[in-house]
Every structure is written in structure tokens, then in C-alpha cells.
């Protein structure tokens, strides 16, 4: 039995007549493309920001670990020798092994109770602190600064000293300011120059200068007399 096309006529759906797009004829509109680009940009920006924050955290952690290593090395040196360092404390110095950091050791004798230190220092201990910070300041410097503190019942004093880290009277603010400016203990002439610059000479220092001027004038007069006699 044969089927003829007249009896069984097959009609194909005419999608183009109904206004329906096929996969071959469909496409993106301009608005869809712009929206896709914006969404993709937001995703890329979010990934980059997350990567940057992660990288900054890794760098901060690495720098802090290095700073801790520097502080531990200098504190261990003091623990090994148990000797008062033969250098001026309180001054930041660039580390020899890791020059990206400055380290500073401070030694202070403090009382172990609320009472005043005794003359024999029996109720005192030596507080040693090592502070380390980046040699080049930046916005994250505070997070990279470290400080180690240890306490010692005694340390071997420097040659010529009876006791290590003796008690010292409180230094005035102007002296601490000048000391910080110079990075060391100021000399007598530097102290004099400091007061001359600020125009605030103490009464006793001004009197000494007046006496010095009088002595110098007397010496000049004596020299002039000698020249006249010759």
C-alpha cells in the first residue's frame, strides 16, 4: 500500500509567520550586552578587591613576623649575656641583619611594689623592652610595630659602675625634647645653645654667662695693656 502526498500532506510549522525567533535567528540586544558588561565588571572588581585585601594581609603578617624576629634576637642577646648593654639606650638603630627595621632597647629600674625604691634597690627589678618598627614609615606602621618586655632581677653593670641601670631622677621635658632631637645625650654647649635659641636662659646659667663675659673682658684688657707697654 502506497501513500501519496495528496492524501497525506504534511505541513511544516511556519514560525516566521507567528513572529517566533528560532535559535538560528535569535541574538542579544544592546541593553542585554551593556548589562552583561556591567555585571562582569562588578564581578572582576570584587575579585580584585578580595585579592588585594588578601595580599595586604599576607604582607602585614610577614612584616610583623620579621619584626618579632628582630625583637627576639636582641632580647635573646641580653638574656644570654645578662650584661647591661654598652650603648646608649632609648635610641632607634637600624638592624644589621634586617635593615628594613629599626630597633630600640630601653632599660628602666622599677619598683616591684607600690612603695618607693629602697636605697639598696632590693625592691626593684630591671625592665627591659625592645621596640621594633619599620625603617620607612607607612600607613600600616602601627600594625607592624612590636614590643617585647622582660624583667631581670639583676644585670652585670658596665665597667666603672657599681650597679646596672641605677635610679635616675626624672628628666625635665626640655631635656627629653633635646635628647630626642639629637638622638643622644646633649653636651653642655648644646644645652646652652638650645636655651639661647628659645630665648629662655635660666637665671643661674645667665649669671654664669655674665661672669664669663666679665672674665673675657678682663683678659682682653690685660692683653691690650701688654701691647701698649711693648
Task: Give structural notes.
With 230 residues, the protein is of the alpha+beta class. The protein has helices at residues 15-18, 30-81, 141-144, 173-182, 188-198, 203-229, and strands at 93-94, 101-111, 124-134, 146-152. The chain has a domain at 27-162. It is 47% helix and 13% strand. β1 (93-94) and β2 form a beta hairpin.
SSE inventory with pairings:
Blueprint: H1 15-18, H2 30-81, E1 93-94, E2 101-111, E3 124-134, H3 141-144, E4 146-152, H4 173-182, H5 188-198, H6 203-229
Antiparallel strand pairs: 1-2, 2-3, 3-4
Q: Strand-and-helix sequence, N→C?
A: HHEEEHEHHH
Q: Would you tell me the overall average pLDDT? A: 76
Q: How much beta, percentage-wise? A: 5-15%
The secondary structure category is alpha+beta
**Multimeric status of the protein:** single chain
Annotation, overall tally of beta strands? 4
Query: Biggest β-sheet, characterized?
Result: 4 strands, antiparallel
Question: What's the gyration radius in Å?
Answer: 40 Å
The strand order across the widest sheet is 1-2-3-4
Low-confidence stretches: none
Number of helical regions: 6
Short description:
With 230 residues, this protein is an alpha+beta fold.
List the keywords:
4 strands, four-stranded antiparallel β-sheet, alpha+beta, 47% helix, 230 residues, elongated
Amino acid at each position: 500500500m502506497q501513500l501519496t502526498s495528496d492524501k497525506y500532506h504534511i505541513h511544516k510549522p511556519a514560525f516566521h509567520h507567528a513572529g517566533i525567533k528560532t535559535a538560528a535567528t535569535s541574538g542579544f540586544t544592546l541593553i542585554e550586552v551593556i548589562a552583561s558588561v556591567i555585571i562582569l565588571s562588578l564581578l572582576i572588581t570584587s575579585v580584585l578587591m578580595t585579592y588585594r585585601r588578601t595580599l595586604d594581609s599576607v604582607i602585614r603578617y610577614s612584616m610583623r613576623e620579621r619584626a618579632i624576629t628582630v625583637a627576639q634576637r636582641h632580647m635573646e642577646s641580653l638574656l644570654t649575656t645578662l650584661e647591661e648593654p654598652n650603648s646608649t639606650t632609648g635610641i632607634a638603630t637600624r638592624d644589621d641583619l634586617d635593615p628594613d627595621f629599626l630597633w630600640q632597647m630601653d632599660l628602666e629600674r622599677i619598683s616591684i611594689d607600690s612603695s618607693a625604691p629602697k636605697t639598696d634597690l632590693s625592691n626593684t627589678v630591671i625592665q627591659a623592652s625592645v621596640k621594633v618598627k619599620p625603617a620607612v614609615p607607612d600607613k600600616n606602621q602601627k600594625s607592624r610595630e612590636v614590643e617585647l618586655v622582660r624583667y631581670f632581677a639583676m644585670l652585670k653593670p658596665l665597667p666603672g659602675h657599681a650597679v646596672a641601670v641605677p635610679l635616675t631622677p626624672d628628666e625635665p621635658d626640655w631635656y627629653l625634647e633635646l635628647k630626642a632631637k639629637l638622638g643622644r645625650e646633649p653636651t653642655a654647649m648644646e644645652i646652652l645653645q638650645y636655651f639661647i635659641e628659645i630665648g629662655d636662659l635660666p637665671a643661674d646659667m645667665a649669671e654664669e654667662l655674665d661672669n664669663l663675659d666679665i672674665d673675657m673682658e678682663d683678659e682682653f684688657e690685660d692683653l691690650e695693656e701688654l701691647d701698649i707697654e711693648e
